[in-house]
Amino acid sequence: MPLRVKLALILMPLVVLPLILLGKISLDHLREQINQVRETQINSVISEATMILNQLEREVEYKLDFFMGDSHFLSFVSEPDVSQTSQVTEKLIYRFQRAASTFPGLSFLAVLSEDGTPIASSDQAQLSQLQLEAINGQLSSSNEIQTLTFFDIETARYFLFKAQRIKANETGRFISVIFGVRLDEAHQVIDALASMSESHVMICSASGQVILSSHHHEHEGQAFDCLNSIKHKGVLTIGGEASHQVKVSQIHQDLWLAVSVDDEQIAMIGQQHGILLFVVAGLVLVASYILIYLIMDYFIVRPIRALSHVSENVGQGKWHVNLHYEGKDEIATLYQSFNTMVANIHAAYREVEDNKKNLETKVSERTRSLQESAWQLEQAKKQAEIASRAKSDFLANMSHEIRTPLNGMLGMAQILEDTVLTDEQTTYISQINESGQGLLSLINDILDLSKIEAGKMALNTESTDLNAVIQHVVNLLRGSAMEKNLALTFSMDPCMPIFLDADSLRLRQVLMNLVGNAIKFTEKGEVNVIVDCLEQDTELEIVKFKIRVVDTGVGISPDKLTGIFDAFSQADGSTTRRFGGTGLGLSITKRLVDMMRGTVHVESVLGQGSSFELLFIWSTVPAPEVVADKLLVRDLEELQGNILLVEDNPVNLKVAETMLSKWGHTVETAFDGSEALELLKNKKYDAVLMDVQMPKMNGYEVTKQFRLFEQKLERKPTPVIAITANALKYDQERCAASGMDDFIAKPVRKAELSNKVQEWLNKGI
Asked: Whole-model pTM?
């Protein structure tokens, strides 16, 4: 829909509403004038009808006076018994007839005896004996002229009577003389009044009977409750017709005059006036619409259309436009603002285009820079991966290279311990063992830290007896505590579940570090290991608990607490000189605890001691079933076997051979993998101790080919125990994958070697 049409429709009520209001006021004023005219006409009719009825009543009264003054009538009344004298009666009737002819407007004349019996009457009476008696009964004993009204039900006629009672002089009896007129004789007058005023005129009795009606006698004689209806509502409904506005007036003590005006006339006049008003309003509406349409089109729509056209050109990139408008109204301001806006947009557009070109150049340069950075990052990543692999390889090689001579050194020290030594020599050997164990612990810490940083450290969770793990750590370190006269205690909350899903090896390593440090840095007092159960959910089968290692040692200053878990860090540089250590233990502990989804927290007071707290939320598990094992229910038998020892290092070969020979085993040796494989194919051994890194053929390949050889000959597998300086978990898994049965890390402890050999010899029984 065009804008000018919308605006015209919106403004149209401003014209229509005043027009409708003006029409309503005019119509109401017209109706009021019509009602006033009708009121005047009705009052005139009522006044005229009242006057006519009064004239009629005076005429009847005059006739009665005239008749009563007639000499013949007076002579008739003076007769002694008029009712019995037929001559007098005939004479009286004659006089009545003459009176009736003398007075043509007379409708009725009668003389009644005292009991109401008619003595004489005119021919026009047409009233029965009973009716005359009823009329006579209404007369009072007064000799004054009385006015009576009577409605004849049979003839449906209404009479107006003037009557007087006369007392006979001789007899003392009363007789009644009645003159009357039928009101229906006044039809001509009623119709003339109704026609003159264009109204409906009725004369009603007090009982509601319609005596006269201007509507051709159609309602005469009918009984209507017109008076009550008029008094309460001012409306009279006659014969089922439409309602009329009615005004009544009492023209006689028993008579009411009702004059009504048909509402249809007023409605028709109002309808005609409404139609005229509608036609005029329609013409004004159309003219107003056309005028508003033209005004809107000229002053609003045309400027907006021009603005829209220019906007389309601007949208198509046609910036060189300029709007002109003659005037100083809001449209002129809008045009000026639009011209300024287009100029600003054009300038901004040129600036954006310039910036776009500059941005494309910068983006291109930045893209090249990012590509170069990405390439450099990729190269750095590759170098980091190479460095990480080199680091891992270096650590593995260093571990192997360090463990190999360390194995020989510690092995020879253990062999020397079994010889006859002086006390001084025993002290030296003990110091050698202690130094070697310290070096081994350092190597293990470095390897653990390397594995954690490389993400190669994995947890092996299983059903773990928490009480047994902590008790084992306490038992191992109790000797160290006793050497320093320290009390080492362990207590567990009775509510704490015993068996948890945890990695017992790593938990033992964490506790060994914490309890070992507590003993190391405590000169006097005690070290306590305390387990507290904080929360337990039996439905979810989880427990929240805390392990505390509390000591009374040297303590840690507050400024050193934040970095205590950093690698190669200690609370005080002097502690290295006083107590030794590399500072790797707490760093490894922190990282292992994080791997086990726990937290570690330390509180310490310098000079009073420290408290390390481990907080875990772990799953509880039921106690494992006890499985009977022949190696657990009886001691290992001391068996001597034929053992093949494969080792390329002469010192390590000598150490292992010496230990095995002292235990009564028969030992054959091989210096490389090829030699070992030939021996295994040609001879049956009870067990094989296999080095991994050897010239010509490593231990993995030897074991694989030997297992294939056994399968081919369907021989019972010979136990193969790896003895290697490669102590990483990956190395253990590789040994198992190649077919080896067990694993011993260098440097080899005498007890461990003996137990492993005895275990496999007993299994082969």
From this structure: 0.41
